[in-house]
Design brief:
This protein has about 950 residues and is an alpha/beta fold. It is built from 45 helices and 24 strands. About 40% of the residues lie in helices and about 10% in strands. The strands form seven sheets. It has a five-stranded antiparallel sheet. The longest helix is centred in the middle third of the chain and has 20 residues.
Length: about 950
């Protein structure tokens, strides 16, 4: 029977979203690993019953099945030529909580942070907490036997699984858990498939009892292999625990009963500096002898160097003590005194003092979390180092006994040197002997892949020689499945095969992983056979060796874009919960579009309708540029794609109306009242491609530049050392000119002379966001000609609209990579707040609380540190929202078909925060889109620009004649 018949049957017989289209298959073709398999199709069940039924249908068609959660697996477990069952969208319920027993029952798609948030009122949480806690699903954690830093205190996921409801490929659906002799006798007496399964398990354990007892290393972080040791009599013949870490190769988990731990009310963090990461590792046994930390993490000087070069977590780096490697020791307790005493007792035992230059101590939770997040960021920081040597998984989570860690690291470093792998960063969960690293393997040439295989084989022998585990956290999958005989021997690996056959005799549950595994150097995502098409691009991609394909490869599958709250990335995913609408999913489609693999589901290249559709709901907010650990810039990639996709073709109507908005505003300024009336009609919206539910913003009666020109404003010369150029962006000039007038008032009060270009100019933003990049380049070149006298004189260009300022700081130089004026423009462009914080000027006091929505492009490109400083100096009690994107995002929220998503994004954070703001509090939003969304969404509030708030305060402040100009002649 055909794949089409399978899809038809699944749609008819399951309550699920069934997708066998090219876009869905491309989005799920890889995970966070080095491997790639195009799936047969995708099933997104609305209930666990629907998921179970989908597996039953697949069994009837004899096709493989892959259960998937967050898709962050690093060993290839989450990619296969199978029907992917994605549990994460709908099957995410917390079904029951028993606070007294400290247990809960969950569905497999629930995200760890979401679970912990719902347990917080009970003072409980799930113990293990991997670095992907914001987006990893509990089903995936069970499949991988996840750990994380908190495993130091709480152990692995297997230590917290009480019972599992499972379904096998052949249809057995049952709860499993600890099974004593009496329970096994009852199961045998009942007969049927379950009795047959348990009889087989009994025979398997009995036949291999000695091998199971002797064959598993007795270390905290053994994740490799199946947990046959959980079936030992002394371990309660626990079938649930035996299934943990089986990577979807045996069963699908429908529900899980989990043990919970109490949340420690107080925490402290001790950071110890060392001259070398190996010396830090040497000290781990001594630390464990004298303390019982909740976490014992490590990072090395190489990671700190990369953080500085990539300018991430720099605040945390500033709090590290002296050293070139650090151990981060966290303590938990019932009181502040308790956690402080634990830290000081350890220092005393080590012969150190809190005042030593190599020691830092904190019992400030916010500071601790910043420092620990810096350690969590290791994968992203080390993936794309600035030196251009891409690093890869492959030997990223080995584990040894903690007392052997220092010696193991020295030998591992020798192996790096032997293979000329430079000096990869070494970090991880040192308290449990688990080492993380990413290595600069050459996976693009046959010779490089052969060296990769030899290295991994040698490393496997090395870790086994130390009594360790191939995997201490991420599992085996394809990356390490082939190496299991080196760790466990033929007899025990043979028992793994028998175990697999009992649950999955047809080998249809995630085949090719753990048992009968695919070669570790096969089916690589980028390998010698990957030959992407070489295409001329509009953007220069200076940080990606001027290559669009390298830019797309920035995505390594971490999945931060699937988080549900905090930061900006990724607003469309947060609304739709669709992989295709995450930054990662879109990057996957773009990768497949490059035509590097002959079996790619995407066959249309730049004309691909699947890629176009996936990018359609991208808000181009640029949140990923800053929030993605590897700096994926999907807004730029979308603009590039649209330029190629619509080259020499008709475009959507909105590209002609909203994309050419700067031109239409120039025409509309002659009759703004008439234009405003016309834009309110349904016909005009249809012709413009604007959603009928969206109200067009109203043109101001008189644009800022026209009014200024009519009043004969002075035109200072570029050479005047007090001159600044106020950039008259389209949105401020024609829709909110009061913002520009306020900015002039404030800048003049600060001692600046304000110049405004006399001729129409534009940054090209609307053409960039609609992919009309040839036009954008011409517009930018004209703007550079107008600004050249000021740029040559070093005059600051002050932007009021964050999206336009971001173009000058970032996009312009990438669109015009060979134009030195574009680089000058990036250097001299300042935000309004940046210009004023470079002064000794005392701003007027605004003694009010202010709720502040930061524009996404400002969040991503220019930052808000200067705004925070200026508001603090002005006496504002500013609450900077961490509520994500406003949802309007320039042209996005106006375009037909986007209104619903636009408002849903806003309702997920910004609008509720605005409604909850007290009437006397200010609402500040420098972005035109943010202010428009707040005003049009029925909040009853008007947001203002920071310049307006300061200008209003100036009007109330008495002036003192003869005050000297307080600002410097040029910004520092």
């Amino acid at each position: 029977m055909s794949t089409r018949d399978l899809a038809t049957t699944l749609r008819a017989e399951t309550d699920a979203e069934v997708r066998f289209d090219a876009g869905s298959r491309a989005a799920y073709a890889t995970d966070g690993s080095n491997y790639r398999r195009v799936p047969l199709g995708l099933v997104v069940p609305r209930t666990v019953e629907a998921g179970a039924r989908a597996i039953e249908v697949c069994a009837a068609f004899d096709v493989p099945v892959l259960s998937r959660g967050g898709g962050t697996s690093l060993a290839g477990q989450s990619t296969n030529a199978a029907v992917v069952v994605d549990w994460s969208k709908h099957c995410d319920a917390l079904l029951a909580v028993d606070p007294d027993a400290r247990t809960c029952v969950v569905e497999p798609g629930i995200v760890l942070d979401a679970l912990d948030a719902r347990l917080a009122d009970h003072g409980l949480r799930f113990g293990p907490k991997p670095s992907t806690h914001s987006h990893c699903a509990l089903g995936g954690m069970i499949g991988n036997n996840s750990c994380g830093a908190s495993a130091q205190a709480y152990g692995k996921t297997v230590d917290h699984v009480r019972r599992l409801e499972i379904v096998t490929y052949d249809g057995l659906r049952t709860w499993v858990g600890p099974t004593g002799p009496a329970e096994r006798a009852r199961i045998r007496a009942e007969g049927g498939p379950k009795a047959k399964l348990y009889d087989g398990l009994d025979r398997l354990v009995s036949a291999n009892l000695a091998q199971i007892r002797r064959g598993y290393p007795k270390i905290p972080r053994r994740v490799s292999g199946y947990n046959l040791d959980s079936l030992l009599p002394e371990n309660g013949f626990d079938v649930a625990k035996a299934l943990v870490g089986s990577e979807g190769t045996l069963v699908a988990v429908l529900r899980a009963e989990l043990g919970l731990v109490e949340v420690a009310p107080y925490e402290s963090l001790l950071v110890l500096g060392y001259t070398d990461i190996c010396r830090a590792a040497d000290d781990v046994p001594r630390l464990l002898e004298h303390s019982s930390p909740a976490q014992l993490e490590a990072l090395d000087g190489r990671m700190a160097q990369l953080m500085r070069e990539e300018r991430v977590h720099t605040e945390s780096l500033g709090t590290l003590p002296e050293g070139d490697a650090w151990l981060l020791v966290q303590f938990g307790g019932e009181s502040a005194q308790d956690v402080d005493e634990q830290a000081h007792a350890l220092l005393k035992a080590l012969g150190r003092d809190a005042g030593d230059s190599s020691v830092a101590f904190s019992d400030d939770p916010a500071r601790e979390q910043r420092m620990l997040r810096a350690r969590e960021a290791g994968l992203g920081v080390t993936a794309r180092p600035p030196d251009g040597r891409d690093t890869w998984e492959g030997w990223e989570d080995s584990a040894v006994p903690p007392d052997q860690l220092g010696a193991y690291l020295r030998d591992l470093r020798k192996l790096f040197a032997e293979f000329d792998y430079d000096h990869p960063s070494l970090y991880g969960h040192f308290g449990q002997g688990c080492v993380h690293t990413r290595i600069p393997f050459d996976l693009r040439t046959g010779q490089g892949v052969a060296a990769f295989r030899r290295f991994v084989e040698r490393a496997a022998d090395l870790v086994v020689g130390y009594g360790g585990s191939l995997s201490g956290e991420h599992g085996d999958g394809q990356a390490r499945g082939e190496l299991l005989t080196r760790m466990f021997g033929e007899r025990l690996v043979g028992a793994f095969g028998e175990f697999k056959a009992l649950f999955d005799p047809r080998d249809r549950m995630n085949p090719g992983k753990v048992v009968d595994p695919e070669p570790l150097d096969g089916r690589l995502r980028v390998g010698p056979l990957w030959q992407p098409a070489d295409t001329r691009t509009h953007f220069g991609y200076p940080d990606d060796q001027h290559s669009f394909s390298r830019a797309v490869l920035r995505c390594v599958g971490i999945g931060e874009c699937r988080s549900h709250e905090g930061g900006v990335m990724c607003p469309s995913y947060r609304v739709t919960r669709e992989e295709e609408h995450s930054t990662r999913g879109r990057a996957r489609l773009l990768f497949e579009m490059l035509d590097g693999h002959p079996d790619s589901a995407i066959t249309g290249g730049w004309r691909s309708p699947e890629v176009r559709d996936a990018l359609d709901l991208c808000l181009a907010c640029k949140g990923c540029k800053s929030d993605c650990p590897t700096g994926v810039d999907m807004a730029t990639y979308k603009a590039e794609f649209l330029a190629h996709h619509y080259a020499h073709r008709l475009r959507p109507l909105s590209h002609y109306s909203l994309g050419w908005l700067p031109l239409w505003t120039q025409l509309a300024q002659n009759a703004p009242t008439l234009v405003n009336a016309a834009l309110r009609t349904g016909l005009s919206k249809r012709l413009a491609g604007v959603d009928p539910a969206r109200e067009a913003p109203r043109f101001a009666p008189e644009p800022f530049v026209r009014r200024r020109r009519a009043r004969g404003a002075a035109r200072p010369t570029p050479g005047d050392p007090t001159t600044v150029v106020l950039w008259p962006d389209t949105f401020t000039n024609f829709f909110h000119p009061e913002v520009a007038r306020s900015a002039v008032r404030v800048l003049q009060a600060a001692g600046y002379t304000v110049a405004v270009p006399a001729t129409p100019v534009c940054c090209g933003l609307t053409w960039i966001s609609t992919g009309q990049l040839d036009v954008a380049q011409r517009v930018l070149k004209r703007t550079l000609r107008v600004l050249r006298p000021y740029l040559d004189a070093g005059t600051p260009i002050v932007g009021l609209e964050p999206s336009c300022t971001a173009v000058f700081r970032s996009d312009a130089a990438e669109l015009l990579p060979d134009d030195p004026l574009a680089r000058q423009l990036a250097t001299h462009t300042r935000t309004f707040a940046e210009q004023l914080t470079d002064c000794d000027w005392d701003p007027p006091q605004v003694p009010r609380r202010a709720v502040v929505q930061t524009h996404c492009h400002q969040h991503a490109v220019t930052g808000s540190a200067a705004d925070r400083s200026l508001m603090h100096r002005a006496g504002m009690k500013a609450e900077i929202l961490d509520a994500g994107c406003c949802g309007l995002a320039g042209n996005f929220g106006f375009e037909r078909g986007h209104h619903e998503v636009s408002l849903a994004v806003a309702e997920s954070g910004v609008l509720p925060a605005v409604r909850n703001t007290a009437p006397d509090d200010l609402i500040l939003a420098d972005g035109f889109s943010c202010r428009t969304q707040i005003e049009q969404a029925g909040t009853g509030r008007r947001a203002m620009h920071l310049a307006e708030a300061l200008a209003h305060a100036l009007e109330a402040r008495p002036s003192t004649p003869g005050d000297p100009a307080p600002c410097p002649t040029q910004p520092t």
